[in-house]
Amino acid sequence: VTRAPRAALIATGDELVGGAFVDTNSGALARRLAQCGWETTRCIVLGDDEDLLTATLRELAPAHDAVVITGGLGPTLDDVTRHAAARAAGVELALDARVLAELQALFATRQRPFPPSNERQALFPAGAEVLANPQGTAPGFALTLGACLVCALPGPPREMLPMLERELVPRLARHRPPSSGLAQRALYLVGLPEGVFAEQCGAAMRRDANPLVGVTAKNSVLSVSVRARAASVPEAEALAERHADELARRFHAHVYSRDEPDLAQVLGRELLARRIAVTCAESCTGGLLAARLTQVAGISAVFERSFVTYADRAKTEELGVDPALLARHGAVSAEVAAALALGAARRAGARLALSITGIAGPAGATADKPVGLVWLGRAFDGAVVTEQRRFLALGRDLVREFAVTAALDLGLRALVPRPH
Amino acid sequence: VTRAPRAALIATGDELVGGAFVDTNSGALARRLAQCGWETTRCIVLGDDEDLLTATLRELAPAHDAVVITGGLGPTLDDVTRHAAARAAGVELALDARVLAELQALFATRQRPFPPSNERQALFPAGAEVLANPQGTAPGFALTLGACLVCALPGPPREMLPMLERELVPRLARHRPPSSGLAQRALYLVGLPEGVFAEQCGAAMRRDANPLVGVTAKNSVLSVSVRARAASVPEAEALAERHADELARRFHAHVYSRDEPDLAQVLGRELLARRIAVTCAESCTGGLLAARLTQVAGISAVFERSFVTYADRAKTEELGVDPALLARHGAVSAEVAAALALGAARRAGARLALSITGIAGPAGATADKPVGLVWLGRAFDGAVVTEQRRFLALGRDLVREFAVTAALDLGLRALVPRPH
After folding, report:
1. Which pLDDT score is estimated for A217?
2. How confident is the model at residue B178 (pLDDT cuts 50, 70, 90)?
3. DSSP-derived secondary structure for A277-301
4. In what order do the strands lie in the sheet with A181-190?
């Protein structure tokens, strides 16, 4: 019987366990591991506590094929990963002369004195393999605890991510147990309640189903995973692919991508592929929609400018919205959403313009316009569409996020119609 | 000897352990628990695995005063928290008739049929206390495993966060062991490298120091924590406060806040308090700066409009930047940053205008202007300041984030000067 290789992830740092910062490394690792056919059983965030990290490593190693630790490789005294790994393995720490020389050379290049504390970064558990870190001063290391591969990588994502590709992925490929097959596919849906999706999937969401369907809602997007197990990776791949195809057919009115979770990237790709100039007119989202679109690398080929018209006067002065329209219907109305989109398209000379006007809260609600009421507008080659959304009881940040998602979807549907 | 009450956090969900989504609940819980004098020893993310959750609860309970679980309370089959908690406690699940009636009434109000699967949400471990969830259909519950308080809360943050305040915090206060004192203070710094800070703090960052100083860098902001232990909470509070005061004096040129990590909120507060109208002119950040400012509730009192001028032509047409200036110095230059700020201030009629023009990459670099080069501009009551930043080797998203942080700081320094 088949078993996927199992990994556990540990992220260390007082600032993580204390909630000052969010651990994004474990998510990045788990996604990449899944692509390699590995199953992540758990992600553990620990403070900078040598005893606890040592005990956790000893406990996880026997039940996992690999344990990946991020963080705790810095030069300061609260960086304890090296010491904990050595203790868990029952070995001493040894100074690596080559790493020390490299560190000293790096500081010399930067014309900075070499702080004695940085010598710590040349210490490794005896017998461990050093993993080069071209982006920083903290090399990682790899060793085995029994049959378990333990890899330690630095905490900063811009150092960790290249090492994940260059150092970890090849070692995982060599370390995986024979004849295990796990594969995963994804679908991304918009405009469908999670409960409706789950109801229609039924037994495929039971824990023991194969393929197993999972779903999570975030900012009104559903991320659906299809995970398949089989005797080999190719068989698992085929099984996952077949089931994902079937789901894509069944939910075709809502599936906006099968590879890219970010709706802005999906819309950006389409705009770039067809060279369609785009602009935005934003009220309650205050630039968030434009910020999402300009996250897309190369978007400058189709994105020239955008408008944040928060106040009524700005809507009139910047985008020519008739003050009478504002007085009659209010800023949060289909009429003003349409006028904003048309005004932005005209002013920017863009074929596609998206507008958002809504009440993000906490203030601003009226008797007939609650917090969460949003009107979206789209002008595409002169044709205007408006849509209303009611994002009730969500709070300011979420109303803005939901509104941006809805506007991106409204834009995408102009280019890639999805029959309802 | 004093001991802070210890909590462990568990977040459940295949989408979390698989890396599709980031667990933000544990961070919010850990921050709130720290304010209540509790120490969080670890945050564990698990898949929807009843056996593993049961085993983890059994393992954590004896070593902790409380375990808080988020997620796994939904109506679907992969929601296993109720079952795992019952097994760990060695009790059966029991249907709560009152909760069931409330659920059925809720669906009736929404004029939707009651799905049989939702009956699952009225099941609780026998003897558990039901915790009301006014924001959703999933109530939480509380029970004790030996001396350990176990609380289960729903996963969606907008449901979890109100229950954290209303249900969890009072129970933790009742459950804390006597005579333990832990207190925490924070400082937020900008414009100082982490290594320099750490070097100057020295022994206060050793794990056994009291007070203990911790530091983390994110988007060029340093979050510094000061944690103190003492025989009682008031004594710990006093000790933490004294040490935080001392750090604030020593690093006064960099400390922008002692209570609010978000630089945009700090700037927003100042603008609102003094009724100073603000606007932005953004090139490479594409609306991100305006989006951050408009995240501040009530900002409409001082924020009327903002400009995303991505293309050179837009800079000229929208904000009157002289094409000759663009030709001579390039869009990424002190001269254009200044012209953007002045143009935006004039056009918006704002006392303060912040501008950003830079090369976010991956494309756009020239021989003398690398990816990561950013010019910032500030016009305040007509006086213009420009600053250059070189955010090298960071990647598009981080260059944009760093640039926004630097621009917010440039704005804040106009209102609250910090001597260097």
Report:
1. 76
2. low
3. -EEEEESTTTTHHHHHHTTSTTGGG
4. A212-218, A221-230, A181-190, A255-257
Q: With contact defined as beta carbons under 8 Å apart, do A347 and A319 qualify?
A: yes
- Cβ(B41)–Cβ(B75) below 8 Å: no
**Amino acid symbol at B190:** V
**Predicted local distance difference test score (pLDDT) of residue B263:** 95
Put simply, whether A97 touches B (Cβ < 8 Å) is no
- Interchain pair B19, A31: CB under 8 A: yes
In this structure, the number of other CB atoms found within 10 A of the CB of residue A200 comes to 12
Minimal C-alpha gap between B44 and chain A (Å)? 4
In DSSP notation, B267-305 reads: HHHHHHHHT--EEEEESTTTTHHHHHHTTSTTGGGTB-E
Q: How far is CA A257 from CA A221, A248, A262, A410, in A?
A: 11, 9, 9, 15
The amino acid at residue A95 is L
Q: Compute the average pLDDT of residues A174-185.
A: 76
CB proximity under 8 Å: B 330-359 to A? 348
pLDDT of residue A1: 43
Asked if residue B262 lies in contact with residue B239, where contact means CB atoms within 8 angstroms, the answer is: no
- C-alpha torsion angle, residues A157, A161, A167, A169 (rounded to 10): 130
Count interface pairs A-B at CB distance under 8 A.
275
Q: How far is A309 from chain B (nearest CA, A)?
A: 5
Higher pLDDT, B89 or B206: B89
CA A326 to chain CA centroid, Å, is 38
CA distance B24 to chain A (A): 7
pLDDT 10s digits, A200-225: 888 888 767 899 898 877 778 998 98
Query: What pLDDT was estimated at residue B243?
Result: 96
**Pairing state between β B39-46 and A39-46:** antiparallel
Contact assessment for residue B136 and residue B121, using Cβ atoms and an 8 Å cutoff: no
Question: Is the predicted pLDDT of residue B176 greater than 80, yes or no?
Answer: no
Q: Cβ(B287)–Cβ(A291) under 8 Å? A: yes
Is residue A200 within 8 angstroms of chain B, CB to CB? no
Q: Does B15 touch chain A (CB under 8 A)?
A: yes
Confidence class of residue A393 from pLDDT cuts 50, 70 and 90?
Answer: low
Distances (CA, A) of B129 to A206, A294, B80, B167: 28, 49, 18, 11
Give CA–CA dist B12/B56, Å, rounded: 11
A113-130 burial string, b = 16+ CB within 10 Å, else e?
A: eeeebbebbbbbbeebee
DSSP for B109-146, please give it: HTT----GGGGGGGEEETTPEEE--TTSS--EEEEEET
pLDDT at A375 exceeding the cut of 70: yes
Q: pTM for the whole thing?
A: 0.76
- The larger pLDDT score, comparing residue A156 to residue A408, is at A408
| Band (A245; pLDDT cuts 50, 70, 90) | very high
pLDDT tens per residue across span B381-418: 999 999 999 987 677 888 999 999 999 999 999 999 88
- Contact between B66 and B38 under an 8 Å Cβ cutoff? The reply is yes
pLDDT at B143: 96
Contact yes or no for A44/A9 (Cβ under 8 A): yes
Identity at A224, one-letter amino acid code: V
B108-137 pLDDT per residue, tens = 877 778 888 788 899 999 999 999 998 888
Nearest to B311 among A115, A215, A304 (CB): A304
Distances in whole angstroms, Cα of residue B144 to Cα of each of B67, B90, B120, B128:
10, 11, 22, 8
Determine the longest span between alpha carbons in chain A, in angstroms: 79
As a whole number of angstroms, the distance between CA A153 and CA A57 comes to 15
Sequence-distant (≥ 6) Cβ neighbours of residue A118 within 8 angstroms: A75, A103, A107, A137
Amino acid at A62: P
Q: Report ipTM for this prediction.
A: 0.74
